[in-house]
Amino acid sequence: MKKRKGLKITGTLKKHRRGYGFVIPEDYDLTGGKDIYIPRDEMKSAMNNDIVTVKVQPLNTVNKSLEGQVEKVIKRATTEVVGTLTISRGYGYVIPENSNINEEVFIAKKNFNGAKGGDKVVAEITKWPSKDYYAQGKITEIISRQGEAGGDIKALIRSFNLRESFPNKVLKEAESIPQMVTDSDIINRRDLREKTIFTIDGEDAKDLDDAVSIEKLDNGNYLLGVHIADVSHYVKEKGHIDKEALKRGTSIYLIDIVVPMLPKSLSNGICSLNPGADRLTLSIDMKIDSEGRVVSHDIYESVIRSKERLVYKDISDLLENDDIELKERYKEIYSDLLMMQDLASILKNKRKNRGSLDFDFDEAYITLDENGIPVSVITAERRVANRMIEEFMLVANETIAEHFYHMGLPFVFRVHEKPSFEKIEELKLFLSSLGLTLKGNSDNIHPRALNDILTEVQDTNSEHVVNTVVLRSMRKAFYGTQCLGHFGLGVNYYCHFTAPIRRYPDLIIHRIIKETLKGKVHGNRIRSLERITEEAADIASKTERVAEELEREVEKLKKAEYMSYHIGEEFDGIISGVQNFGFFVVIDNTIEGLVRVDTLNDDYYIYEQDKYRLIGEMTRKTYRIGDSVRIRVESVDIQSREIEFVLV
Questions:
Q1: β-strands 105-107, 135-144: how paired?
Q2: Per-residue model confidence (pLDDT) at position 63
Q3: 8-75: which CATH architecture?
Q4: Which residue stretches of 37-163 are H helix?
Q5: Contact by Cβ (8 Å): 10, 52
Q6: Fold of 566-647
Q7: Taking the model in full, what pTM does it have?
Q8: Residue range 305-317, pLDDT digits in tens
């Protein structure tokens, strides 16, 4: 970057808990692709995520870094802080719940407004911080009292500016929707109520939006039916429910709390494909040959009556263990389940052969007691029934996307672009440190080459780490109106069609599909849909990121709380990451903690970044990614979600 005197940059401030931060510039060309370091004393009144202008100092000649000082706050990101009120000597501080907000807020006693120490509260900022003083504020809302069950998760939800409840106008509109399918609803729909159709979901699921059916045709092909709740029949474009659903973008699942996209009377009621109830659906029938190719398909509006509400665990026990009791219980559909298992295996092999990436991450299943305290953290099961439904939803999404791509109509696609050259080069370097070779050109890597690596490390100590690093080398998937393919799945066409109760992109493409079936998409409607799909894709991509971040924060919070009850206990684990300050260890239940380098007293350890390891200066003892270690839980900071281990 050419040095320019008095260079001023506009960007977003990311502030660290210790007071310093970095400004991410709006235009990286002005900084040579670098963020700008802001020392604690140069913040002025800026807070995390504020948009600011900074005056950039000359380049640091040692590491070519940039440093600056905040000149002006252009736009405030934070006007209120959600957190825990701590009281000391008559005054209080609100300690933020969201770890992305770093500043505590000073609260004078006269501004407690009924709040007590330990309560989860909302504090409105009345005075911005300076280098000598905290931000000041007043309590405007008490979310929950100290110790109240679920209060910590509710506070986190509120800290992301989200709410479980709906505005009155949305609820009023939802109340006007009948909870029964009427004769007028099913006019011109294909009647599938006598067909063997059923749902398979998790035991706790209440919003059942997909059902399946299967037949074997005379020519040996399978006829797979995927029947999705017709939410668009009830949620009308530009209505109050629709506008709120667009704003929310997605339902968010937080252990035992759901922040739903739609009111419960829809999500758990008339739209949910509950057994024995007539329900409106949008169906796709696919004829699939023995190689997993969809040789033909049919998309249509339908009405179904689900025969069973099946649970993943039961069906997995039946198919994996040939459970006699379950076989008798489900004897009416047992042959259908066996047929589905065979078809799912065919579809999976087809995906694998084309190079589809199948990350096999262990996910945490956290159980809370009636007081919201985590009593167990185990690895969530992903068994044969789960994978079976996954395969059917994948093929339905792909088939729908290809169909509407060729029609050339406005649509919302799921896009996953190929990794950048730089990321693949970094990945190759990492894999070589483990003795693994990634084949192919870095500027045009094929997903099959990455899948070969994932297969090679399966059931080894390196599996978790390699899966993690490969995933980090990927770009983020997003929603877009251009069909750019899905790298991770190895397909040219992909969309989200199968979950309109909980994802807005699915809902909007249901409308487009139904209008197309009725011949209504032409002229001005096409131009209108171009605008609508662009907006929906953009909002859904953003709300998805927020949902992922909130889900991560809640999981980290409850994992930290769980481990706070296990301080001093020992566990076996695998090194999952190495930094100059120590290394991270993940134990069997997916919980990760840090072993600080200053607790390794037997030597002075040097960090070798390119080899992802710490190595002893005298002993040459190494700690590298993938190594097995035994640790003891040393300390837990629930507020910051930090868990520290020491080696045994």
A1: parallel
A2: 54
A3: Beta Barrel (2.40)
A4: 151-159
A5: yes
A6: OB fold (Dihydrolipoamide Acetyltransferase, E2P) (2.40.50)
A7: 0.89
A8: 999 999 999 999 9
